[in-house]
Amino acid sequence: MTGAWQTAAVAGWLVAVVAIVALAALRRRWAAELERFRAVSERDALCGVYNKGALVSLVSDLFGRRGARLRGTLLLVDIDRFKDVNDEFGHAEGDEILRAVGEALRGGFRAGDIVGRFGGDEFMVFAEGLVDPATIGEKVAALREAAREAGLAHVGRPVTCSVGALVIDGRAATYDAALRQADAALYEAKRSGRDRHVTHSFEEPVCPAAGERRAGAGGGRSDV
User: Fold this and answer.
1) What is the pLDDT of residues 153-174, one digit of tens each?
2) Cα separation of 100 and 147, whole Å?
3) Around Cβ 209, how many Cβ atoms within 10 Å?
C-alpha cells in the first residue's frame, strides 16, 4: 500500500512539474506575442518607422522625463509638392517615395533615435545628444540625396525635401514649444524656396503665441 501511495505521489508531482513547465512556456509565448503585436501596432506599415501615435508618445514622454537636461535635435521633414507626385504618377509611385524616405531616415540615424511618420508626407526625428550643426547638416544632406535618387528611380525626376531642425541645448524645452519652433523652421525652409533645411536654436517662449499654425500632436500639412 505504501509503495502504491509513493508511486501516486511521484506521478502527481511529475504532472504538476509538467503543468508548471507548460504554463511557463505558454506565458513566455504569450509575452512574445504581445511584444510582437505591440511592435507592429507602433509601426507605420508603409515606411517601417514609428506611426504618429507612437511617435508623439515617445517624443513627448522624452521631453517630459528629461526636462531641462534634454539635449538633442528635433527635425521635421516634408516632401516637397508630394501631392503633385501622387496626382501625376499615382499613389503607388508616391508610396515608393515615402518608403524610400523612411528607409533613409532609419539608416541615417542611430537605433536609439526616434524616427516616425508624423502625417501624410511629413516625418519627425528626435536625435538625443545631436547638437552639432555640421553633423545635422550631413545627415540632412544624405536624406535629401536619398529622396532625389528615389524620385529619379520611381518617377523619372528628383524629389526634394524641406527640413526644419531645432537644436535644444541647455534650455528647458517642452514638447509643444519645441514642435512649434521646429515647425517654424520647416515653414521658413519651404517659404524660402523648398529643397533646403533651416536650423533654429530653441528659445524659451515668454508666452504662448496667438494663432500658431500648429499645437501639440498635430501633423500633416498642406504644401506651402
Assistant:
1) 999 999 999 999 999 998 889 9
2) 7
3) 12
